[in-house]
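Before a colleague's protein record goes any further, I have to sign it off. What it holds is a sequence and that sequence's fold in token form. Would you go through it and say whether the fold makes sense for this chain? The record follows directly below this note.
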Amino acid sequence: MKKYVCKVCSKRFPHPSNLKQHTLIHTGEKKYVCKACSKSFTRASHLKQHMSIHTGERKYVCNICSKAFAQSSNLKQHIRIHTGEMKYVCNICSKAFNQPRYLQKHMRIHTGNTFYACNSCSKSFTNSGTLKEHVLMHTEVNKFKLMHAGEKKYVCDICSQAFTQPDNLRQHTTRHTGEKKHSCSICSKRFSHPGSLRQHFLIHTDRTIFTCYICSKSFGRSTHLREHMRTHT
């Protein structure tokens, strides 16, 4: 018998502890705080799952390909790559996806919502991947202009290589000095370039940002995605 009733939404629970935990949804109280990054949670179990991001523990293993994940939900999503299950269906055009985030991105095609704006020309896009491709257009144009203008006034004192931007020169100098001032907050591994640190951090977060538009498989590196795309050709 569920005799403990929530005063806000009338949902019933068999134990007072269940009701107490449920009430946090309405109050917004998040008393379980991560000591590593200060992110807070309403449930102790959610904090425990989150901690695996910092510890690197991956106890949920795919029984098909042995890939390991920090959270059970990530494993469930991964399994769909093997089974081919497409349970998330667009209610407008019936196109199906194996993960909810892909369906959410797809829906922007129908709604016309554009969340990703270019800082150079203010043009907007429905997904971050298209924005990145667009930004490259500006980057390549700027490189072309600088190259033909001959404006490489920042010169390395050691090897005399010249650069158009001071930041590029500073980054280049680390090759000579061996300086690695960018440190991973989780494993303390050090890198000379912030981009290398960001790429490395994907190992700990299990984040995949490069997605195949054909089969929806995701990768942590663009090079891995390019290698994968050859399997479709």
About this structure: The CA atoms of residues 76 and 119 lie 37 Å apart.
